[in-house]
Write a structure and sequence with these properties.
Blueprint: E1 6-11, E2 15-21, H1 24-29, E3 37-39, H2 42-51, E4 56-60, H3 62-73, E5 77-80, H4 87-98, E6 102-103, E7 115-121, E8 127-132, H5 146-150, E9 152-158, H6 165-180, E10 184-188, H7 192-207, E11 213-217, H8 218-225, H9 230-237, E12 243-247, E13 253-257, E14 260-264, H10 278-290, H11 296-310, H12 322-330
Parallel strand pairs: 1-5, 1-9, 2-7, 3-8, 5-6, 9-10, 10-11, 11-12
Antiparallel strand pairs: 2-4, 7-8, 12-13, 13-14
Helix pairs in contact: 3-10, 7-8, 8-9, 10-11, 11-12
Length: 331
């Protein structure tokens, strides 16, 4: 097998995040799903945008955030995702290119517009996300760059993008391409509502041995397995995927692989400002170690360090020097 051109290539929603602080009363007034992610249509997106205070716009999307973290750590990455030929699409492309990630998916003409995620951040740092998927849900199967996927150590997929039919077909094709090239497939479950809609698909992918690294949080683990007890959920999946990684917010994270188990505590932090992207950056840190063959515990530590950095400020893209953080904390 040829040496990989990329450490990780990811397929995900190409989204521009629009973030604004708000008080708890506004969450209630707008009847938002506090702390969760809700898909919204264009009229609801306009309503929520109009209700926001002063906002900050920055490119986002779960898998794209993970790649931004990986690139900051020094990994070679590429992204496949659909934007529209509009201002938000140009912002997304600029931002992802600026951190050294290859992104060559042609922009889509006409409506709908590039996807946006309207994020309300309450004083406790909790983020309430309202996503208009726009052009991102029209990623066609012919946008899959099979040569690039075959030349990446890991293909990383986000569960969010499994919802629309067209990108779901594209991701299935990408999985076949990666497996055919002898590469690994990593998958993040993304959110409980995605599992409620597509859990049978995800369980089938796992049963067929198509997932090498599975990322979940404790709520997603329970939704996927149907088991409320955390340890029961781990036991139900540990022999079905080569590497299982489960985060538990402030309680740290657990990984199991080939009969081995590792656990780490959450990294200490002075104040939680915004939890947007914590799981995405945890995946970045873990995958950075994983593609280098590092031990499970060190991969988890990398994930925890990245997650702690991201929740210390607004936005889901790293602001501190992640390489310097790793050097200081891991030696």
């Amino acid at each position: 097998m040829n040496d990989p051109r990329y450490d990780v290539i990811a397929i995900g929603n190409a989204i521009v995040d629009v973030m604004a602080p708000c008080d708890d009363e506004l969450i209630e007034e707008l009847q938002l799903n506090r702390g969760g992610m809700t898909l919204v249509d264009p009229p609801r997106a306009r309503e929520l945008y109009d209700a926001m205070g002063p906002a900050r716009e920055i490119s986002g999307g779960s898998a794209a955030n993970t790649l931004a973290g990986l690139a900051a750590l020094g990994a070679q990455c590429a992204f496949i995702g659909q934007v529209a030929d509009d201002q938000f699409g140009r912002v997304f492309a600029h931002d992802i290119h600026s951190v050294g990630i290859d992104f060559d998916t042609p922009a889509r003409a006409g409506e709908p517009s590039t996807a946006q995620c309207l994020i309300f951040v309450t004083p406790d740092g909790q983020r309430t996300m309202n996503t208009f998927l726009g052009a991102s849900q029209f990623l066609p199967a012919d946008a899959i760059d099979e040569e690039a996927i075959g030349g990446a150590s890991v293909l990383y997929l986000e569960g969010y993008l499994w919802d629309p039919e067209e990108p779901r077909a594209a991701m299935r094709r990408a999985i076949e391409t990666a497996r055919g090239a002898g590469r690994k497939v990593a998958f993040t479950l993304s959110e409980v509502f995605v599992i409620e809609r597509h859990g049978d698909d995800f369980r089938a992918l796992i049963a067929e041995g198509l997932i090498d690294v599975l990322f979940a949080n404790h709520l997603e683990l329970a939704a996927l397995t149907g088991l409320a007890d955390f340890e029961d959920g781990i036991a139900a999946l540990r022999d079905k995927v080569p590497t299982l990684v489960v985060t538990r917010s402030a309680e740290g994270a657990v990984a199991v692989s080939a009969g081995a188990r590792a656990e780490v505590a959450a990294e200490p932090i002075a104040r939680v400002v915004d939890t947007t992207g914590a799981g995405d950056l945890f995946a970045a840190g873990f995958l950075f170690g994983h593609v280098r063959g590092e031990p499970l515990e060190r991969c988890l530590r990398r994930g925890a360090i990245c997650a702690a950095e991201i929740i210390s400020h607004y936005g889901a893209r790293p602001e501190a020097d992640l390489q310097a953080l790793m050097a200081a904390k891991l030696g």
